Amino acid sequence: MTRLTLEFAASIRFKLMLLVLACILPAALLAALLIDYDYQLTYDNFTRSAMATARANAMEVDKELAIVESALVGLSTSPDLRLRDLQAFDAQARQLGARQNIFNVVLEDASGQQLMNTFRPYGVPLPREPDSASLKFMRERDATFISSLFIGPVAQRQMVAVGIPLHSREGAWCALTASIAVERFGGILRQQHYPDHWITSIIDRGGRIVARTADMQRFVGTQALPQVRERMQQQAEGAFETRTLDGTPILAVMSRAVNSGWTVAIGIPLENLKSEMRRKLWSLVLATIGLLGAGLLIAWRIGTRIRRAMHGLIAPALALGAGEAVAPVSYGVREADEVGDALVKASAMLLRAQHQANHDVLTGIANRAMFHEVLAQQLAICQRSHGTLAVLYLDLDHFKAINDTHGHAAGDQLLIEASVRLRSQLRKADMAARLGGDEFAVMLADVGAAETAHVVDKLSGLMAQPYQIDGLALTAAASIGVALYPAAGDSLALLLEAADQAMYQAKAARRLGPRG
Ligand SMILES: Nc1nc2c(ncn2[C@@H]2O[C@H](COP(=O)(O)OP(=O)(O)OP(=O)(O)O)[C@@H](O)[C@H]2O)c(=O)[nH]1
Taking CB atoms and a 6 Å cutoff, what residues make up the pocket around ligand 1? Predict the structure, then answer.
């Protein structure tokens, strides 16, 4: 990944938080859909139940009117009527009215002339209404008439009438009508015990309100809501959402009574229906916010921990690159700890490889490459600070013979012992190296000719000592060549060349000596 894409790469915290959102939001959406589905189900069940109530109430209305009709039918069989004893019939009708909560009973002849009206004393002159709709209906259809709401011409109050046609034996025709006060229908509604917020109305065929559960005095006689009247024309039953005159949204449920054609309409404020769903939705919103908050907080904390663990690996990784020892701190994140362990192992491998590259495998002291490197550094220091140093080249004498006589392993052991002897005579600032085969080199830092000669003497004596190897005393003295800086040369190459030459000269001199 390039540096540019790294800058735009999302952090682990951001990705964890996205994960939380990706888990919680779809679940919240699903819950919202379930709540909506539940609301629809509840709404449908509620509508069905309200419709059943409206239907039952419509039947109650028809039943109430049927009671009045049957009372009239019973009254019409009176012998007093048959015998035209209207005064006795009037008395009988008054008793019926009192019993049945009927406002008044009227007997009319075919011309519309009232013959008897229990609202007026018997015998007083009564009005004639030849073109009344009720008479027309009963005459033409010869059937029971149920009026719409009207204001009684004599009583001057709102009421409804039920009328039945009568036929005398002589074929004369007349009508018997009972008027009922609207309060009787208000009583039907009161018996239903609707919930307080329901408003139920009984509406006549003309769309006028006959009775109402609330504000009856105010609304009786007024037109029902236009939407309700419109629906009444179109269908016998229905449920729909609309608004009251004051703008309150309601669910309107209505059912038309079969006989009277009147309609019972129930208005239920939608607020009451929706409040439960709204409460559930709010609970869901709050739960979602809570879960999201908790989830994001946890994701943030986990992300922070992982981030710290990852950042904790940067320094060890850089140390590894610099060839330094690596010591990562554990942050309790397993994967990061595993990477830290890998860095530690890589560091150890790198240090080992570095060591192998710079040291002689057999003796463990520096090899030729490292000797040259360190010598060059020391030389540079001396050149800057006008210091001194000495380079010693050592070559074991007759080493081949030891190999040949005692075996290669014994030769190896001798080389190891020789390196130990070399190092034992050096200071910390000095350095011993194996150049290869039986050749060694020594750098003496900050020494002059006298000190160098002293060290060379000591080394020469020490190296000449026999080595105890496999119970044998083996001798391999060293020929030592010396080159001093700055006397022998001011470059690495010149110094090495000079030391090499000196060593060969020393070896040659020894060959010429007693052992040569
Ligand atoms: N055991 C052992 N022998 C080695 C190793 N490397 C080189 N040699 C042997 O060391 C010997 C060095 O040979 P030379 O220095 O030419 O012979 P020398 O007998 O020391 O002769 P002079 O130096 O003239 O005294 C050779 O026989 C190499 O095979 C090693 O790692 N182990």
Answer: 362, 395-401, 403, 408, 411-412, 415, 437-438, 507
